Amino acid sequence: MYNRSYSGHQYIHDLLEGHPDRAADNLRMSAPTFLRLRDLLISRGVIENSHNITAAEQLAIFLRVITHSCSMRSITEFFQHSLETTSRYFNLILDGLFGLEREYLNLPNVEYTGESSSNVVTASNIFKDAIGAIDGTHIPAIIPSTMHERFINRKGSMSQNVMMAVGFDSMIHFVVAGWGGSAADSTVLRWALENTDFFVPNGNAYMEQDDERIQSGRLTSTVSNTTIGDSVRGEMIRGRLADILWQQWNRNNPEQRMK
């Protein structure tokens, strides 16, 4: 069935030996980084070279799927392997990367008491004691037809509604993924407060998109809707939060600041 003369292995070899931009564009990482990740996964026993498919090709299959939103069937044609083979190695690498989570991801301390917005914004008490902001973002999803209804968002496309809590230290403090695009932001937030270890230090709060704050583990209204309930005021607040986070990032990353 798969009889193209140019195999997936030959493609990966050509990609890694070619211009550096090719690896970055197609694998979303440099060739040296790709090879280091491959060697790490081999050393941990996650993948290995086999008679039909190399470890580098296995990793490339995984990266093509997650970085280019490729379907498994398009991957089978691209790399000239069966659907069973590509699915098996995708899941092997996914499980292997989850196993490296604690070793390579430095998660923020739940007792975070970093700079609150009261030290940054003095013109208003809207951000008083806030240590960050929470919002949902929709990530495109490819899911089975039996689950379509749950993942159709208000724009009619398939997505996950991923909740993120971001601090004024420009770090992501918490992420909740897996909810379908039809779920409201408040639904995901309440679930996180009730079912995960998401934690807000006493005396602090996170600002949430709908003019609410999450304070000491509970969701409470910031001020009355008659004060900031209109959409113009809400957009101004969110814009100000974005400006603060951007300024903080620039201070922390002067060498990467846009000229």
Automatic annotation (TrEMBL):
Q: Which domain of life is it from?
A: Eukaryota
What keywords are assigned to this protein? Hydrolase, Metal-binding, Nuclease, Nucleus
One GO cellular component, as annotated: nucleus
Describe the location of the DDE Tnp4 domain by residue ranges.
134-190
Q: Which GO terms describe its molecular function?
A: hydrolase activity; metal ion binding; nuclease activity
Q: Where is the DUF8040 domain?
A: 4-96
Q: Where in the cell is it found?
A: Nucleus
Could you say which cofactors this protein requires? Answer: a divalent metal cation
Q: Which family does it belong to?
A: Belongs to the HARBI1 family.
Descriptive protein name: DDE Tnp4 domain-containing protein
Which species is this UniProt entry from?
Apostasia shenzhenica
